[in-house]
Each structure stands twice: as C-alpha cells, then as structure tokens.
Specification:
CATH superfamily of the largest domain: Dihydrodipicolinate Reductase, domain 2
Strand content: 15-25%
Helix content: 25-40%
Number of domains: 2
Number of strands: 17
CATH class of the largest domain: Alpha Beta
Largest sheet: 9 strands, mixed
Distance between the termini: 39 Å
Number of helices: 11
C-alpha cells in the first residue's frame, strides 16, 4: 500500500497534540476525513489541517472509499461502536485507551478485527518512551533475575478543575483508573505478564468540579499478584496537591528482582536507574541510542521536545503494521487485557474483596 488514507473521529486535544503530528511525520500517509460530534471542534480541526471532508456523523466517515484506516479519539463510550462500524467497513483501527467500556466489549472488538484480517492498535503511548523500551529490553534479557516487585505511582494535582466527559461515568466508565492507571496496568503486563488476582480501592474526593457534578474516582490503587510470582502495587491520583501536572509531576515505576532493580521516571526519557546485588545504591545510566526511536521510525529524536515527540512513533507503528500486514504493538488484545484488570478492580473496590483473574 503506497499511500494509507486516514480518517480521525474525535478532534479534541489528543488528536491535535499527538495524532496529527504523528501522521505528518510519516511518509505515505494522508489525512482525508475528519469527524467530531461537536461542529465547532470539527471546524477548528478542519481549519488547522486543511482537510475539506468533515462530518459530525462517524457512520458517514468510516464507510468512505477514500479511507483505509480510522483513528478513534472520542469519549470512551463511543469507542466500541465506532470501532465496530469501521471494522465492518473494512478499515484498520487505532483507538485511544481505554478502548471500550469493559472487557467483553474490548474482546469483541479484537475478535471482529482479527476475523476481518484488519490491523488494530491501542494507544498506550507510554510504551514508546525510549526509557520504557530499554527497560522492557532489560527485563526480557534477564536483568532482574526472578521478579519480586512491581511498583508504580502517578501523582498529579488537577484540583477541582472541570474534567468534562472524563468525570461522567456514562461517558468514561471509570475515572483515574481508566485515565492514568490503565497505562501502568499495561506497563505491568508488558514487563511481568498477566495478573492472577488483585485487591483494589477506588475513591472519589471531589464531587463538584467547577460547578459540574463528578461521579468517578479521582484516586485509584491496586494490590496484585502476577503469574510470574511477582507482586504489584499500583497507585494513581489527580489530587496530589502541589505536585503539578504532566512531566512536572511524579510518574514513578520500580521493579525489583533477585538479580537487579530498575527505576523508570517517565519524565526522564533518556535514562534509567539500575541496581545490582551488593551495590552502593542505584546508578543512573543513559539509554542506548538504538532505543531512542521505534525501529524504522523517521523521527529525529534531536528535534522537538523529547517528552512529547516520542508519541509520534505510535502513528508510525500503526501505519507500518498495515503495510507489513502484521499485528500492531500494542493491539486491541493489550487494551482488552488492561480492561479485564480494570473491571476486576471495580468489582474488588465495590465489594471490598480479592478478585481472581482468568
């Protein structure tokens, strides 16, 4: 396929910040259609991109003959219906996380895409951070020995700011659990494999956000056992007062094993902290340059803000998987596995008990 023609459904901040620059970086890709239920948002995106074809109805866009693949960046409630419509129309799909409202819906999406022979991808963008790629390499190479502990902590200060659809259960499904902890659940799967059981606690502290009701968790935590024998502690909050946001806030991950430990700070894209038995503490090491970009990516890691531009490699991976007719990394199945954990976490928190996973 010499040229891949793309449509984007959902033209908000994520599309403008991540998806459009990623597409622009990739040769042989052309944005042919835009869709957003909000006419003003759609008009703004069309003005910014120069794309003439626009619609407020995703059904009109996904069936177009000049569209080969669809990127979905809408509120979570609409991910499943849009993806299934695109798959039925023979389009490859890249979907923001969480890719569905629950595990069963996500599983159905993955099965439908597989049966249709189409590429499917979950937008777990943090997998593309150079330091995370090198960390995954070290774990697969046996640096940890027998894994003992997985530990992550994502702390931001969003205060009582209005979160829009992200604070409505009807549209988002879950709050901090799906918004930020889902990425860390995916980290744990990538590094240690599946969980076998978990105990979770989800809590809402702020019920009114700038005059708008919120009915979702703004803090979430999971205690887990993994099939590998490791344990896990995962925590994420929007209410860590004074912690700031984005790269200025804490985003910490640590792995401990019989032969080593690794610390990953998302904001430090080009380094890890490593420890070995008998050492004097953790040593900071630089990430080898071969991990600075996704294999084959045309992105120049010396250009732009490296804490942002790694996200553009996601578009490259999606497009290359389409051209090579291979599975995307990460796929809908990765998104479904994260949702299985999220579903179990909701049950565990509501019923105050351990939940076992298949």
């Amino acid at each position: 396929m010499s040229e891949i023609r793309l449509a984007i459904v959902g033209c908000g901040g994520i599309t403008l910040q991540n998806h459009l620059p990623g597409i622009a970086m990739c040769g042989g890709a052309r944005l042919t259609a835009l869709c957003d239920a909000n006419a003003q948002t759609l008009e703004r995106a069309q003005t910014q991109t120069g794309v003439g074809v626009g619609s407020t109805d995703f059904q009109e866009v996904v069936v177009r003959e000049d569209v080969d693949a669809v990127i979905i960046a809408t509120p979570n409630l609409f991910h499943g219906p849009i993806a299934q419509a695109a798959i039925a129309a023979g389009k490859h799909v890249l979907c923001e996380k969480p890719i569905a409202m629950n595990y069963q819906e996500a599983k159905a999406m993955a099965e439908a895409a597989d049966q249709a022979g189409l590429r499917h991808m979950t937008a777990f963008t943090y997998r593309f951070v150079p330091a995370m790629r090198y960390l995954s390499h070290l774990v697969q190479d046996g640096f940890l020995g027998d894994p003992y502990h997985f530990r992550c902590c994502r702390l931001q200060d969003w205060g009582n700011r209005d979160l829009g659809w992200r604070q409505e259960a009807r549209l988002a499904g879950t709050g901090e659990l799906g918004d930020m902890l889902s990425h860390r659940i995916d980290f744990s799967h990538l590094l240690l494999g599946p969980m076998t059981r978990l105990c979770a606690h989800l809590k809402q502290f702020v019920a009114d956000r700038e005059g708008h009701a919120s009915n979702l968790d703004d803090w979430s935590s999971i205690l887990a056992d993994f099939k590998s024998g490791a344990t896990g502690v995962l925590e994420s909050s929007k209410l860590a007062t004074g912690r700031n946001e984005s790269w200025k806030s804490q985003d910490y991950l640590e792995l401990n094993g019989s032969q080593g430990s690794v610390v990953f700070l998302t904001g430090h894209w080009d380094e890890l902290q490593l420890g070995k038995p008998g050492g004097d503490g953790l040593e900071t090491v630089k990430i080898p340059k071969e991990f600075w970009t996704w294999p084959g990516s045309p992105r120049d890691p010396q250009q732009g803000d490296p804490l942002v531009t790694f996200r553009y490699d996601q578009a490259f991976e999606f497009l290359e998987a389409i051209r090579q007719q291979r599975d995307c990394t990460p796929s809908f199945w990765d998104g479904a596995r994260a949702l299985q954990v999220m579903d179990a976490a909701v049950v565990s928190s509501n019923e105050a008990r351990w939940v076992h996973l298949d």
